[in-house]
Each structure stands twice: as structure tokens, then as C-alpha cells.
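Table S2 (continued). Query chain:
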Amino acid sequence: MAKISRPQVLIRLIKVTDISKIIELQMESFPHLAALGIVWKPEHLEAHLKVFPGGQFCAEYKEKIVGSCSSLIIKLEPEYKEHTWLEACGDSFYANHNPKGDSLYGSDVSTHPKYRRLGIATKLYDARRQLALKLNLRRIIAGGRLFNYCEYAKEMTPLEYVQKVIKKEIKEPVLSFQLRNGFKFIKILPNYLKDPRSLNYATFIEWKNPQYRQK
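Corresponding output:
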């Protein structure tokens, strides 16, 4: 019998014509943040494509955009400096993008809730890794959401929560996924981004490029 070919998830660079679909995706992916108005606006995504087009990826499945991720290049000094999302990115237009920086900063990842069994986020993370290798960037860093921390906040600090996630004593969809994808937890970032699920905390995570060549 002939094998039935299944549709594949395609990872590609975002185009201007994708912008309205990316915003729809954000609304579906982040309902808690969307309620606060904390999602991309068209002018933000247009700016990202002008500032760093090679760092903006989307995932397409059956001609539908089901995932996206946005990135910029920065240099943190010192390298593990405590920061907020705004301080890392400069603003929603990526004012802090620095082509001479050494770190790819992951500012956003969205996956459609109805398509989360297709490995979309893993493929988007792989695209970022390939970009870091291609540009010889020293590392990828980001501030990750603590999606379920709001359910444990009365019992423990964010750091205690993370330590239990690392020990697999608590299920945490975002950090657990990031750890499985080769990222290491560095420290807690307070007041990172207005986020009712994470209570505004984030994890400073890092993936080091094993092929990095000193410039």
C-alpha cells in the first residue's frame, strides 16, 4: 500500500502579508495577555521585519499560520544582568537590536492552542538555534513565563517553584519545555512583564552555542 503523506509543519520567515494572521494567532495563544492589550500591533511587527527580518519566523500548517516567534540581537552587560522585557528589547519596535551583539534574544513565541501536538514550538526553537549558529552568536537568551506559578504563589517563592519544576515535582508547561530543549535556568527576573499567570515574574534562560567562534 502506498503511504499517505501527512501535511507537514513548515517553518519560514514572516512576510508583511502575514502580519494580520500573526496578530490573530497572538489573540488565540495569549488570551490572558490579550485581555490586557499585551499583544503585538501591526506597526510593531512591521518594525521587526525592517530591523531584523531574518529573526522573525512563523509556522505554517495546511496553509494556516499556527505559530510564530520574534527575536532580536542584543548585548547584555554584565552578561546575566537582571532586566525586564522592555529593557532587553528597548521597546516593542526593537530599538535595542544590535547587529554587533552576541546574544539572540527570544522576545516572543506563540503557538495556536488547537495545534499544540505538532511540535511547533520545538521547530521554532530549532529555527532560532540554526540562526544563532549561522550568525555565530554566542548564545540564545530569553525571559520565560512561569505559566502555572499563580496557582502556587501562596505556597512558595518563584525560585522555590522553579526548583520544583526542575526536579519534575511540579508541571510547568513553559519552563519544562525550555529545559527539554537545552536551555538552562539562570535566575528569576522580577517585574519582567505584566502577566497575571506568572505574577510578572520570568525565568532568565540561556542556550550556549557549542560552535561559537570567538570574534
